[in-house]
Each structure stands twice: as C-alpha cells, then as structure tokens.
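debug: dumping io for the single-chain case to check the tokenizer round-trip. Nothing else runs in this session.
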Amino acid sequence: MKKWMSFCLCMLFFSSCAFLNAQAKEAKVESFRLSENMYRFVLNDIVNIVAFSGPDGVLLVDDGFDGNPAFGFVHSPAAVKAELKKIGNDRIRYIINTHTDLDHAYGNSELGPDATIIAHQLGRERLAGLSQFPQAGLPNLTFRDSLQLYFNGEEIDLFYLPGHTNHDIAVHFKKAKIVCVGDLIIPDSFGSISPTGNARSLIKAIDLLCQRFGADVVFIAGHDRPLRRKELLIYKDMVEKTLAIVVKASKQNQNLETMQKNDILKDWKSWNGVLFKELDANGWIEMLYMSTIKALKPSAAKRLGELLADADDAAVQSAIRRLLAGRSAYYFLEREFNLLGYNLLNEGKSVAAIEVFKITVELYPGSWNAYDSLAEAYAKTGSKELAIANYEKSLQQNPDSQSGKDALRQLRENK
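debug: decoded output
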C-alpha cells in the first residue's frame, strides 16, 4: 500500500493527490470580500482562490482542482465559474499559478481557455512533464525573477520566491495591500515542503516577505485564514527552531525513524495540522530531514533505480549488492524505496520490484507498510502463499489496516 503525505507530496499532500470518492458531492465555493473588487473564494472548504474583478475582466490567483473527484467533491471549475457569475463578472483574462500542485493549478484548462496563464518557468516545465496534465492548461506566460501586470487599475507584482517548491511565486496587489503566498505558509500548522522545495529556502522566503511588507499588508495563503506580518514572524521562528532540532539530531547520526521514535519535536505539537491532519510532527520531521540530508548525501533509492534501469532479472541481485556495499555514501528513506518498488511494478519489472520491496522489509523490519507493499507485489505476480504470509506480518504490526484485511481475505477465499 502506498502511503500518502499531503502537498509533497509530497505530499503531501501535500505533491499532490486526489482523494476519490464514489459518492462525491458537487463542488462548492464560499466567498469572502477582501476589498471593493477582490474576493477570497474558498473552494471545497480547503483551497483559497483570489478573484480580482473589474472592467478589464477577472484575474485569478490559483484555480483549484479540475473537474475530477478530489477531496470528496467533483466539478470544481464549474463551481468557481458559478461564483464568478454571482459577483457579476466571469470573463477570466488572467490566471496566476503560485505553484503547480493539484489543488492550485489543475483548474487551468477548464477555467483558462481564453486566459493568459502565468507561472514560473520551472512550474511550466513541471506541468509539461506530466503526461496526464492537458496541454491546454499549460502556462503560456512565464518568468524567472519578476513580472509586473497592470490590470483593472491595479499594479500587480509577481516575484520568484521558492521554498515549498522550487517554483513558488508571490503575488502583490499594491493598492489593495494584499499578497498571495500560495503554500509557502500553512496557517497555524507545520508547513509543507515538496521534494523540490527546501527548508532553508522557505525560511529565506518568509524572511523576505517580512522585510518587504509592513503591518498593513494582508497575506493570503493557499489554505485557511488570512495572515498579518507578525504571524509570519511567528511562523518563521517555528521553521527555524524545528529545523535546528532536526539538524542537531542529524549530526548526532540519528536517522529519520530514530528522530520520529524519539519524538524530537514533542515541544512543538501545538503546530500539528488542523486543516491537514497529515501535517503533524512526524511529517514535518521528515520534510526537514529531507532538506537537511539531501545536502549531505545522495538518495540510495534513486541510485538503486539507476542501477536497475538497465539490469535484466539476473543482474538485479548484483545491483542491490553494489548499492549496499557503499551504504555509508547514501541516505536511506523507506518511502523512496517503496515508491521505487511500485514504479518498477507498474513498468512490468516484477522481479526487480519484489527485490526492492524485500530490501525495504530488511531495512525497515518494524514497518507494516513495507510488508504490505511486498505482499501486494507477490499477489500481483501470482505468489499467493508469499502474499498471504506478508499480509499476515503486516497485520501483526498494524491490525487496523482495512485494506490489508480485505486483501488477505480475498487471497484466502481464492486459494
């Protein structure tokens, strides 16, 4: 079973994942007026979209999901269009993507057929590399450092500010004194750092925002409530101090699992996410750890993937031995090995996939998910007895896994 981290997902959440629901509800939007002609649309109780309306048309900062099921709702673009009609203007001229996560840029194609879609160049490159992302939704205006727009009588500054990802941008409406910051900040919560993001870059980004803007500016994050400068300073303090704890533990040769087991952020539990429960202390430790360890060592899972890319079935064991022989040169992370195994399985390389899952079990014998993934691979390749044995081991460690129970029952019924 694959484990999801929101936004990274990572996440995560938080690179981004759709939560399908067979009984999904119609999407909904709740509007909050920010100024005379600017609104904060809250889509499906979770995503902030800023809508700026005027004689020139509408400018959107972020645009939410596409029409597919996500977080229990469907037809999100239609809900946004309906809310625009309520405020009296649905002529969308510009869409700005603060970054390209599922919940911020996937409305592009449905909401922007007649719009100029703006993003950082690296953001466009990311979307262009996703086979499932429609060409019609790709940003058609990009920049590297900064860009200025003059629209509806407002001067709008866009500037590059990486941290959550490597392509975040902030959007400053000068007259309105509103700054949209995407997922650089998750109000009242541990943050979100994607695989392309970086904790130190995130600190620099928040610091720049605090230096550049005063107490009279309102910051609109990608989720939850608006913020003021003093709250950004508190957030920055949290990131700096928790990062220092993780760096110290890393210098003491603690790996990720040890840090989480030792509960090194126990004094910061008040920052456990409310809106996104996945953004808890353990998840934050992992994101900070990745930012720290990536600068010191390359990924063992990535290197193994390179070794296995051209290896036939007979050479798989040799490739794995070569990796483990140089173990001290790499960092090891369970979820990266898990992802590698599933990628190989989806590519039809079942022998290599099973060997990767077996190594994951060997490296992380206390992980129910490692046994669950190995069992799933065995089941898909017809090795029922081995699948049953590993599902049983997984359920011994996590008796509450409903997916494991269901898979085990089906295997036993079909023996």
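debug: round-trip ok. DSSP finds 15 helices and 14 strands in the chain.
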